[in-house]
Amino acid sequence: MKPWKQYQEDAASFFRSLGFEADTDVPIKGARGLHKVDVAVRTSKVGVDQLWVVECKLWKTRVRKQEFLTHKAIIDDVGADRGILLSEEGFQSGAIRSAEHTNVSLRSLADLRENAEEDLLDFGISQIESKIIRANETLRKLVRRTSFSRTGPTLTFLGSVDADSLIDLSGRVSSMRSALDYVRLNRFPVILAFLPYKEDERVNGTQELIVKGSKFMDWAEGVLMAQVANATERLE
User: Fold this and answer.
1) Is beta strand 82-87 parallel, antiparallel or unpaired with respect to 104-107?
2) First to last CA, the chain
3) CA 106, chain centre distance (Å)
4) Does 5 have pLDDT greater than 90?
């Protein structure tokens, strides 16, 4: 793989490792034309989809003002929420001044790994928390009735859904929530009891938990959507 292409892949992998969706060489249609961006990073926060466009400059010289202006024009044309211009050699003073008070960040990949990881990890946790809220809302809609007795609550589900599967999934989602609580408190190792069809695992870092948690919530969403499709009664 050519070095510049590897640089793009390394940037995309960094965002993926924190639970974001990231693809390289993505065509995005703007108001004035089609743009092929180096890395498209997609996120969803509190139910609002966001797009970050990352431009990778693996140059032996500092990036000039003109490259910043070109990147900023693409950001504006496609309506991206944020732009990131990456260069390991730095930026000329004109580019730095032009980027002030804009939605474009001038960074190196090394900077992102060293300085932005804490914020991005926090955002990655928030992403999983949002998915947990949506999953619990879907689970609630698949319940027809809840009755209570001395032994605890009894759930009656809509017709044709797999009750055992949903009860198991509900427990796993609850375990995912508990794992995030321990991460917020920085209490490691965290026991992952939510992973499907696997023995419990221990993780010693936030990034590893976000990767595994994101994959789990994607799996959980697939299970829930299949159950919604199977329901013979109309959801609320």
Assistant:
1) parallel
2) 51
3) 22
4) yes
Helices (H), 44-116: 65-78, 93-99, 109-111
pTM (predicted TM-score):
0.56
Per-state percent for the chain, helix, strand, coil, to nearest 5: 50, 25, 25
In the block, tokens 């743009």 appear at 35
Inform me whether the pLDDT recorded for 122 exceeds 60.
Answer: yes
Would you put residue 40 in left (φ > 0), alpha (ψ -120 to 50) or beta? Answer: beta
The domain ranges of the chain are 3-107, 116-230
Closest to 85 in 3D by CA, of 23, 44, 102? 102
CB-based contacts of 208: which residues, under 8 Å, 6+ apart?
A: none
Compute the chain's Rg from CA coordinates: 22
Q: What is the dotted CATH code of the domain comprising 3-107?
A: 3.40.1350.10
